[in-house]
Automatic annotation (TrEMBL):
Molecular function terms, GO-annotated: DNA binding
Top-level taxon of the source organism: Bacteria
Domain HTH marR-type, residue spans: 1-150
Keywords for this protein: DNA-binding
Annotated protein name in UniProt: DNA-binding MarR family transcriptional regulator
Length: 162
């Protein structure tokens, strides 16, 4: 069997001969983005907007600074996204009574409904990708991604990702 580049796949290939993780993950990421973008466009929300709604729906992210850190964005660069989401009635921003310079963020019922509809459509498309794996591979792949995606550079002994 060969891969997309015409190289022979060999299940007995040594670990040292495998491609770098980034080289393997990148095509999968491109595929996932290509699948997600039309869904996001149909719901009139950007990838950053969806990230914001997800962070606000999944847990107590209260301020813009906390939100930016949670989604890996610069706090000054997400203001436009927050404006769009607020104008669409998907989030609310209110002054923090303890710090007038800060804004408290909250997802609205409409934002929660939109986020969950988008997530359901994305998950349905992900099923096509995951269906190419055996049940054992699928479980291991998802668990490994969950574990790796929770890491930060500080979690690594040699800080190799920083």
């Amino acid at each position: 069997m060969t891969d997309r580049a015409g190289r022979r796949r060999d299940s007995t290939r040594r670990e040292s001969d495998r491609r770098d993780l980034g080289a393997m993950v990148h095509p999968v990421l491109r595929l996932l983005i290509a699948v997600e973008l039309p869904i996001l466009a149909a719901h009139e929300v950007s990838m950053w907007g969806y990230s914001v709604l997800t962070a606000l729906d999944d847990g107590p992210v209260r301020t813009q600074a906390t939100l930016a850190e949670a989604i890996g964005a610069d706090k000054t660069r997400i203001i436009g996204t927050l404006d769009e989401l607020q104008d669409a009635g998907l989030i609310s921003r209110t002054p923090d009574p303890n710090d007038r310079r800060a804004r408290l963020l909250e997802i609205t019922d409409e934002g929660r409904r939109l986020r969950r509809a988008v997530r359901a459509e994305i998950r349905a498309k992900e099923e096509s990708l995951l269906a190419t794996l055996t049940p054992t591979e699928r479980t291991a792949f998802v668990r490994a991604l969950e574990k790796l995606s929770a890491l930060s550079p500080e979690d690594l002994p040699d800080r190799g990702l920083s």
